[in-house]
């Protein structure tokens, strides 16, 4: 089956040091490296298979200049969002809540959101209570999991896949209209006609960021 030409964009957001890079790299390569570069947004390209149908992914690991995350409009122009906090850090949970509130005010249709509490291996020193999490889930209607990027990949993989499927289903239900989504939707609707039947969009835009392509066997290929 031919590849789709449009990309589904996922932005990974959250406070400094919560493990955004660790989670992104875990999802893409199943590896935990331990130390990751900070201060630079990294854009990864990968492919997700929806059945036999390839869906190209642009995953943007946003380095947490928190003021920038709040102010930079294009960080909220994505098809899906992974918002990360650390279970050991209440202030990171508040940052996550702030991001979700910003999303609610800036994104007109229902965004696909995965809220991930990372560093679950440090649960014995947790600072974020289940009541606070429950409240946030109720208000913002998001997926939620607690994970340890350091210890395992399975929940991270499953959660990303759930998020991607939800974002694809969003095309069906509300067909959000941005330029970048045109080719994705056009090709999707052709390939998965019964599910993705909406109008097409136009064009595509580039971000000047470090770009890493992940081949299907998980080997990194640095292209920029
Ligand atoms: N114990 C534990 N440490 C983790 C886990 N995930 C990441 N870390 C550590 O937390 C630190 C920060 O991880 P990063 O992935 O760089 O966090 P980040 O959110 O991308 O950081 P910035 O880009 O600087 O905002 C590193 O030392 C990681 O090794 C985890 O699940 N458990």
From TrEMBL:
SMART domains: RAB, RAS. It comes from the Eukaryota. InterPro entries: P-loop_NTPase, Ras-related_GTPase, Small_GTPase. It holds the Pfam family Ras. GO terms for molecular function: G protein activity; GTP binding. The keyword Hydrolase applies. It catalyses: GTP + H2O = GDP + phosphate + H(+). Its EC number is 3.6.5.2. The keyword Hydrolase applies. This is small monomeric GTPase. Keywords: Hydrolase. It comes from Biomphalaria glabrata. Gene3D superfamilies: P-loop containing nucleotide triphosphate hydrolases (3.40.50.300). Belongs to the small GTPase superfamily. Ras family. It is an enzyme of class 3 (hydrolase).
């Amino acid at each position: 089956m031919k590849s789709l030409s449009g990309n589904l964009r996922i932005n990974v957001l959250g406070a400094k040091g919560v493990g955004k890079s660790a989670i992104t790299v875990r999802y893409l390569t199943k590896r935990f490296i331990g130390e990751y570069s900070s201060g630079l947004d990294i854009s990864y390209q990968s492919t997700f298979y929806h059945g036999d149908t390839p869906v190209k992914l642009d995953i943007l690991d946003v380095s947490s200049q928190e003021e920038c995350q709040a102010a930079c409009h294009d960080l909220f122009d994505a098809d899906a969002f992974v918002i990360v906090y650390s279970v050991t850090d209440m202030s990171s949970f508040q940052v996550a809540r702030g991001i979700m509130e910003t999303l609610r005010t800036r994104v007109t249709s229902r965004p696909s959101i995965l809220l991930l509490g990372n560093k679950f291996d440090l649960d014995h020193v947790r600072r974020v209570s289940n009541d606070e999490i429950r409240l946030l889930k109720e208000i913002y209607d998001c997926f939620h999991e607690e994970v340890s990027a350091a210890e395992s990949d399975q929940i991270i993989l499953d959660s990303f896949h759930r998020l991607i499927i939800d974002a694809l289903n969003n095309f069906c239900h509300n067909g959000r209209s941005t330029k970048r989504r045109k080719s994705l939707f056009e090709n999707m609707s052709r390939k998965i006609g019964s599910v993705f039947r909406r109008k097409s969009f136009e064009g595509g835009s580039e971000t000047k960021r470090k770009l890493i392509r992940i081949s299907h066997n998980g080997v990194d290929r640095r292209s920029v």
